[in-house]
Amino acid sequence: MLQRSSAAVLNDCDSPRRLHSRPMASLAPPSPRHPAGLIPSGELWLPRASLTACLRAAMARSTVGYTLSDAQRINRFPASPLCSLSWWFEGRSEALVAERPDTMPTQHSPREAYPGRWVLAGPQTRPTSSYCAGPTHAMMVMFMPDALHQLTGVDPGALTDRMVDAQSLLPPDWVALCEVVQNLPDNAARLQCLEDFLEPRWQACRPAQALQTQRYGDWVAHLAQRAALSATGRSLRQLERRIKRWAGLPLRELRGFGKAEQAFFDTIAADAAQGSVRWADVAAGAGFSDQSHLCRVTRRITGYAPQALYDGIYGDEAFWAYRIWV
């Protein structure tokens, strides 16, 4: 049955189509913002317009052919309301476990193997870190949690702060897709295959008025509106339960992600315009009560204070995922 399903997936992926992609910022010549010591190994892929309410983005990274120190083999990821599906085409990653909840793990921290050949992750309320012992080529596709639920029936709430073997939860045609993607020759072909697989399925189940924007704050506002209009029962408690069922996280926490993302982009804009960042201005512009509030939320989502995060983005290999988001 898996072979028949794989053939059907391949048929979905046959038609050629150019993907929207944006290469990692450090592909530019070395500069004070992109030091020569950072390798040009990552890409951010943006979905075709018909899938923007389903997919947020895909990140691919390869360290094959590069010589890295132990510290440079760490990968830092923020907490996120998104769900993700990950492949490894060469090498493998391990989860790094912090010794204390108030610290970020280092290359010397305990490691745990990720489950399964392909990993499905739910919304993460804490920052995560991984370690690649050798050269690694991997890809992570990030889904809006409500869209993943509509496409697969997977409950984002049951996946919150978890990473599981994708084969244990995904429908058979999705498992067949994972196999096909695993064996395609390059990232462009893999992402095209994924989009061709998703498009007819998403068009069949998408909400009547799906959101066409990518920012968390707009998505959260749209979820709240959908919750208010989609069923009987309009009390605040009922609306919050509906949103948590769709997204896996409570409304208040989702709004926090929206503010944090706004602060992130405001920081980049301020740096580009002025060459420096005034954190009090960033906090006010993103809707935080004050600079201390911004610091608390940034630490909770990334594990770092704003200035330390900023320095890491522009000077530490481990923050490559943040850099390509810039």
Automatic annotation (TrEMBL):
Chain segments carrying region Disordered: 1-33
All copies of domain HTH araC/xylS-type, residue ranges: 235-312
Gene3D superfamilies, A to Z: Homeodomain-like
Entry superkingdom: Bacteria
Pfam families: HTH_AraC (PF00165)
GO molecular function, one term: DNA-binding transcription factor activity
Protein name, per record: AraC family transcriptional regulator
